[in-house]
Specification:
The structure holds three protein chains of three kinds. Chain B is mostly helical. Chain B is 75% helix and 2% strand. In chain B, 60% of the residues are buried. Chain C has one domain: Orthogonal Bundle (Helix Hairpins), CATH 1.10.287.3510. In chain C, helix 1 packs antiparallel against helix 2 and helix 2 runs antiparallel to helix 4. Classes of the chains: A mainly alpha, B mainly alpha, C mainly alpha.
């Protein structure tokens, strides 16, 4: 299952650094380069690396498909809630939390929270898309109608 | 007070679309309730906006030209009314109709995303924001066209997707060129800079790119090749939404906003829009007469009627623009009624081929009556609504001494009547074939939708003096007045 | 000036690939090249000779930043446009996969049942 021993060992050494790098880009999105989307794509590539090197069972034990499905909808709803909470200050999408001190991590209002919501949305969505596109052959061989797709994916 | 609720027109359908995906397959009834409640809230907000004075809303309290503004003038209100009324009727129709397909919950999520995108296109006042909402609406329509996952539907969806993404690329190139010349993306600010500054050749390049891009979304003739495949393959409520609303909100409205308000009209642009309109009218109806597939015939007629609207709007006189806007509103009602009727016939008999149908009047009386009302409306028979709008366009053409174009318009109207007489004779009157003897009338919810649309067809024609001033003529005045738009946003 | 011309040459190549090739996946690659060419054009509009990235450091004053940095607005537009392009590409690939299992071929001259 998966690739050869060299690839597995190097993945084990490097995967923690990849995730740390991705989280750094997400959290410091309002101070330096990056932001929600770029950091989310880096984290997703980390999960895809696990899936390529170790096989799909290990990847599904790290990130289950049911959890991904809920997180993708939850991330979008969280972002919309942050936008609607701006009505407290008077306008839609207003930057209502206090802006804090400049150049610190806790600054720029709701932008860090929006970055985190977007990154969760991106990670779960692109992971599900990758799983479905790669495992497509197995899906269509076994199931006839599309209503069984969801059950089949949940039982993978 | 209603001004504070303006962004909710986009936020509510977007939130509903993502909320609905969380429910499992067994709670479909709850999902239908949630979706209907959110559509009713949208309609209430729009009804409160109908007579309201124009205003502009600054998102996040950022003043223009730095921030994004949402603008409400009379033409936005007209289009919002059309989009959401056809939307709620299609949604009610789809509760029973989508039993034929699987996974209704994903259908409702995509439908609400499409409505959110179209609402966003109509209310925004910023060029790039227009592009983003346009993409939201059209990408969800790509998925909805291929919803049934049969081989023909997938082929139609792929063709639509490739052509649609090329047109979006052209629109983005036009936005890039305008930004590099002027340095701002706000529509009112651009209108100010273009009307005050000198002539610049890059504006003409950007304008042509916009006409190509938005013309493909709005089914103008050299760019119409996706429409006869995409509209028949979609499920019937989506065909009604696509043909009744999407090609108007994403195509015609965007051309009006960019040509009249942002860039400003010159005689060259009048000539281009009118020639595109005449070409669409003629080519659409000539290709439609020989079709034997019911929905494909209706799709070709959509191209032809969009040509009417474009001739009226490209003409530029007050009467012409009024005729164009009135025909836009009427076409939304009668074309969606025709598509829903064809869906009802397919639901009961299982076929779309006109040669296999006949004599359905005895078995399905409500469907047949409403189909006849819609056919008479589109052909331009008084007292239905199609007659009045076509009359206004023809009188406007004669007023500007385009006698040849007026004669062509009358001939096209006659050919429309010919093709719909063919439809009526083969589907409703005539002999009942053996297979159709067991066809039943459609369920009560679908019938109610058809009856409401038929009543709207008659009412918008006959009761025009009651609503014409608030809804249509104010929209016409808002289109022709560029300075009022600039003052609305920039104060 | 030449750099904008090269960008539009990339656009023309993407358009050629989309029109002239008959394989479905090659058409999808043509659409991807078209998308990236327009994104590149949009980013190049904001470029300034000898400019710094538009990030404010602690010891920099705001006037220096606004005079010397490249334009940050096209970068935000391109970020949105890349995500939209990603979404469209994913949808095209999934429909191409389903088309292959219905028609058993990738050749567009044989996937033409809707005619007339």
């Amino acid at each position: 299952m998966g690739m050869s021993l060299i690839v597995k060992k190097i993945t084990q050494l490097v995967i923690g650094l990849i995730f740390l790098f991705g989280i750094n880009i997400i959290l410091f999105g309002h101070l330096s380069v990056g932001g929600g989307f770029a950091g989310g794509v880096i984290l997703t590539c980390g999960f895809i690396l696990i899936m390529l090197a170790f096989g799909k069972d290990k990847a599904f034990s790290k990130m289950k498909i049911r959890v991904s499905h809920f997180l993708s909808c939850g991330g979008a709803i969280t972002f919309l809630t942050i936008a609607l909470l701006g009505y407290i200050g008077g306008a839609f999408f207003l930057n209502f939390p206090d802006h804090g001190k400049a150049f610190h991590l806790h600054s720029a209002g709701f932008i860090p929270y929006a970055d985190i919501a977007i990154s969760i949305l991106i990670v779960s969505s692109i992971f599900i898309i990758f799983v479905v596109l790669v495992l497509w052959g197995g899906l269509t061989k076994n199931s006839g109608k599309d209503a069984d797709d969801e059950e089949y994916i949940h039982n993978l | 007070m209603i001004q504070q609720f303006y962004p909710l027109l986009v936020a509510i359908p977007l939130g509903t679309a993502f909320l609905v995906l969380l429910f499992p397959q067994s709670l479909t009834r709850v999902v239908e309730g949630i979706v209907i409640i959110s559509k009713v809230i949208l309609l209430l907000i729009i009804i409160a906006l109908i007579g309201h004075a124009p205003f502009s809303y600054f998102v996040g309290k950022w003043v223009p030209p730095i921030g994004i503004t949402l603008v409400s003038d009379y033409i936005s209100t007209l289009l919002l009314l059309v989009i959401n009324s056809v939307g709620i009727l299609s949604l009610l129709y789809s509760f029973e109709y989508m039993e034929m397909y699987t996974s209704k919950i994903r259908f409702y999520a995509l439908f609400m995303l499409m409505v959110a995108g179209m609402n966003g296109v109509v209310i925004t006042g910023d060029m790039f924001n227009l592009f983003v909402f346009l993409e939201i609406a059209t990408i969800s329509s790509y998925a909805l066209v291929g919803f049934g996952c049969e081989s023909e539907e997938l082929e139609a969806s792929f063709k639509y997707m490739i052509l649609g993404s090329v047109s979006s690329t052209f629109i983005l190139l036009g936005i890039a060129i305008i930004y590099s010349t002027f340095g701002t993306l706000n529509m009112a600010d651009l209108a100010n800079l273009i009307s005050v500054g000198g002539k610049n050749k890059s504006i003409l390049f950007a304008e042509v790119l916009f006409i190509m891009g938005f013309g493909l979304k709005g089914a103008m003739v050299p760019f119409h090749a996706w429409l006869p495949d995409a509209h028949p393959s979609a499920p019937a409520p989506i065909s009604a939404m696509l043909s009744g609303v999407l090609i108007k909100a994403c195509g015609i409205y965007a051309i009006i906003r960019v040509s009249y308000h942002v860039i400003g009209m010159t005689p060259l642009i009048h000539l281009i829009l009118m020639s595109l309109g005449v070409l669409s009218m003629v080519v659409g109806v000539l290709l439609a007469v020989g079709q034997w597939d019911f929905k494909r015939l209706l799709a070709y007629h959509s191209i032809s009627q969009m040509g009417y609207v474009m001739v009226g709007i490209g003409l530029g006189t007050p009467l012409g623009i009024l005729g164009g806007l009135f025909h836009l509103m009427n076409h939304a009602f009668f074309k969606s009624l025709l598509f829903l009727c064809s869906g009802a016939i397919e639901y009961s008999t299982g076929t779309r081929n006109l040669k296999e149908m006949g004599g359905l009047f005895k078995r399905m009386p409500v469907t047949s009556t409403t189909c006849s009302i819609a056919s008479l409306s589109i052909s331009g028979i008084p007292p239905f609504n199609g007659f009045w709008s076509k009359l206004i366009i023809i009188i406007a053409l004669v007023q500007r001494e385009f006698y040849a174009l007026a004669a062509i318009t009358v001939c096209v109207s006659f050919l429309t009547l010919v093709s719909f007489i063919k439809v009526q004779r083969y589907s409703i009157f005539g002999d009942l074939p053996e297979k159709m003897k067991r066809a039943k009338e459609i369920p009560i919810l679908m019938r109610t939708t058809l009856v409401i649309l038929a009543i709207l067809c008659i009412v918008t024609g006959v009761l025009y003096p009651f609503f014409g001033n608030t809804v249509l003529e104010m929209a016409r005045d808002a289109i022709m007045d560029q300075q009022k738009y600039i003052h609305l946003v920039l104060r | 000036m030449t750099i904008y011309l090269m960008c539009l040459f990339l656009f023309a190549m993407g358009l050629y690939c989309l029109v002239a090739k008959r394989h479905l996946i090659k058409k999808i690659i043509g659409v991807a090249i078209l998308d990236y060419a327009v994104n590149l054009f949009l980013v190049l509009i904001g470029y300034k000779e000898g400019g710094v990235p538009p990030i404010l450091f602690k010891d920099m004053s705001q006037q220096v930043l606004s005079r010397q940095s490249v334009d940050p607005l096209p970068q935000a537009l391109v970020l949105t446009s890349i995500v939209i392009g990603l979404g469209v590409l994913i949808m095209m690939v999934s429909i191409a996969l389903r088309l292959y299992e219905k028609y058993k071929t990738f050749d567009t001259s044989e996937i033409s049942r809707l005619k007339g």
